[in-house]
Design brief:
Elements lengths: L2 H9 L2 E5 L2 H13 L5 E5 L5 E3 L2 E3 L1 H10 L17 H8 L10 H15 L4 H11 L5 E4 L8 E4 L4 E3 H7 L6 E5 L10 H9 L2 E4 L4 H10 L3 H7 L2 E4 L2 E2 L2 E2 L4 H7 L6 H7 L6 E5 L3 H4 L8 E5 L6 H21 L1
Parallel strand pairs: 1-2, 1-9, 2-5, 9-10, 10-13, 13-14
Antiparallel strand pairs: 3-4, 6-7, 6-8, 11-12
Helix pairs in contact: 2-3, 2-14
Bound molecules: guanosine-5'-diphosphate and calcium ion (CA).
């Protein structure tokens, strides 16, 4: 790296849009690579719901646990070193057990709910979590009000996202997705500010339809993105998602899933796009695009992969900026 490039790289202020598991992996890499405090994550809350009277925020927790080094990397959700006594007892009582919360995870849910009941916002409570668990990066829920993603099936029923995702295991075919509970919701002041102040905005390899689109649907977000440097990483590799329903959603909605389809999905806001090396051959057939498109190993199995991809993303951002 030239000294000029290196300095630009380290001092970059990055704001990343993310969902849960896929997004969290790249965030861990960015958190490692950037100077402490230089990363802000804006996290989808469209999956949030209430269970046993507790606010559940799956993507926010995946991101926070990952950044705190507390995530269960085997399951891909929840906490490592977890025990399940409460869930087992609930099962014995015939209580609903379709959404699994481990004992340690439950402790955080109880504390978060206590703070919500005191009138604290989700944004304030998330900052508190980051402080307790030593996270240097800033984590912002996309908004503080309820903004549920709703799924309309081909049979015509509207489902809450967790109903579709966990209870029905993504089996129903999707006809339509409604974001933000079909209401107009503005991005929080901190969210808009984090986007405006960023040198680079990263769209993590998260589900475009139900993890990233809710954030993009907030009033004010797209307008800022159009004026900023934005780089995305594809969550679709060789036409499939590594996990979850992203590829099936493209199919259900009549679009062949591919990295190119992801790039197209973000047309109008992207300056750069990173797809997986495994799609190199396919990429030769893609339509020409003004978006600077580069291959890299995007499958992140360990921290080294996360760091390497984070560096590749920032490096593409710096090069686009310096080429302008
Ligand atoms: P969720 O809310 O927990 O489902 O998580 P996200 O929306 O953040 O991530 C889901 C997406 O992450 C899926 O489409 C996966 O294909 C993608 N994903 C998971 N792990 C990886 C990875 O290591 N590399 C890439 N490129 N995508 C990944
Ligand atoms: Ca999610």
């Amino acid at each position: 790296m030239t000294p000029k490039f290196d300095a630009a790289f380290r001092n970059f202020k990055v704001t990343a849009l993310a969902g849960g598991v896929g997004g969290a992996k790249l965030l861990v890499g960015l958190d490692e690579v950037l100077q402490p405090g230089r990363l802000t994550a804006i996290v989808n809350t469209g999956d949030d719901f209430t269970h046993f009277g507790l606010h559940i925020s799956p993507d926010l927790d995946s991101v926070c646990y990952a950044l705190a080094g507390l995530a269960d990397l085997v399951h891909g959700w929840g906490r490592k070193d977890e025990s399940w006594q409460v869930l087992e007892e609930l099962r014995r009582m015939g209580a609903p057990d379709w959404f699994a919360l481990g004992d340690r995870d439950l402790a955080w849910h109880l504390e978060r709910q206590r703070l919500l009941n005191e009138g604290k916002t989700l944004t304030e409570i998330t900052a508190h979590f980051c402080e307790i668990f030593g996270i240097h990066s800033h984590v912002l829920p996309m908004c503080d009000e309820p903004a549920p993603t709703l799924i309309k099936t081909k049979e015509g029923a509207w489902l809450g996202f967790q109903d579709y995702f966990v209870r029905l295991k993504c089996q129903p075919e999707i006809a339509e997705i409604a974001l933000l509970g079909n209401r107009a919701i503005a991005g929080s002041e901190l969210v808009i500010q984090a986007l405006q102040e960023a040198d680079l905005i990263v769209i993590a390899p998260s589900n475009p339809w139900v993890s990233i689109d809710p954030i993009l649907a907030l009033e004010g977000v797209r307008d800022v993105l159009q004026q900023k440097l934005v780089v995305a990483v594809s969550p679709i590799i060789k036409g499939s998602a590594l996990k979850g329903p992203a590829a099936k959603m493209f199919n259900d909605l009549g679009i062949k899933p591919s990295a190119q389809a992801v790039r197209q999905h973000y047309e109008g806001i992207l300056d750069g796009f990173i797809f997986d090396n495994l799609d190199l051959e396919d990429a030769e057939k893609w339509q020409a695009s003004a978006i600077i498109t580069e291959p890299f190993q995007t499958i992140m199995t360990d921290d080294a992969d996360k760091i390497a991809l984070a560096r590749a993303v920032i490096s593409l951002g710096v090069r686009i900026l310096q080429g302008r």
